[in-house]
TrEMBL record:
SUPFAM superfamilies: Nudix, Winged helix' DNA-binding domain. Keywords: Hydrolase. The keyword Hydrolase applies. The keyword Endoplasmic reticulum does not apply. This is NUDIX hydrolase. It comes from the Bacteria. GO terms for molecular function: hydrolase activity.
Amino acid sequence: MKINRTFIPFDVKLLNIIWCFDRKTNQVKVILKDEGDWTLPETYLIQDEDALDATIRLTRELTGQTVSPKNIEQLETLTNPKRVVDGKRLVTMVYMTYLPEFPDMMTSTLELFTLENLNSHYYFTKGEKQLAVATVDTETEYYQKRLRKNKFYQVNDYVLKKACLRIRHSLDTQPDILRILGEAFTLREARSLYAPFLGVSFHEIDNSNCQPPLTKVSGL
């Protein structure tokens, strides 16, 4: 029995969630780019470049920092059939980068947004700007409901939610997010980092909650 299949062209992009820590304010930040709407940095892969190399390159282009592969984590690959741009399927690989140093921005289109948590809902702020993450849990649900309330391009609000939840769930086992504190940091800074992911004040986090996981982040 012959099965008819329709194959359509597709593009592959890489989305980079770049995390960092502001020691002046003890706040967790993420880099967003102003392209009419606030978006996460993205790039196409160039010839002879794999996804990890592309993530390192994009991070260097935006921040001037060349990060180690250990500071990069793959989050998800987005393949929903509804992701079609100009007649082509769009496949997007999502990575997270943990900047060990606070960045000096290289272009005027980049801004640092602060991670906040109100009543277990994550959102990002910059002055009066407030960008909420998606309320759904899966990519399929996201496209079924076509959520666009905060004007993120495509699935930025969805992947930021996935990133926050991934990090929150890893805090007790493999808290690689601590890499944004660099090689030397205080327990107060670690508590300030944990707080928005857990949805509590850093005063509510006992030092003993932070100390055991520190030994599980290899290379720190």
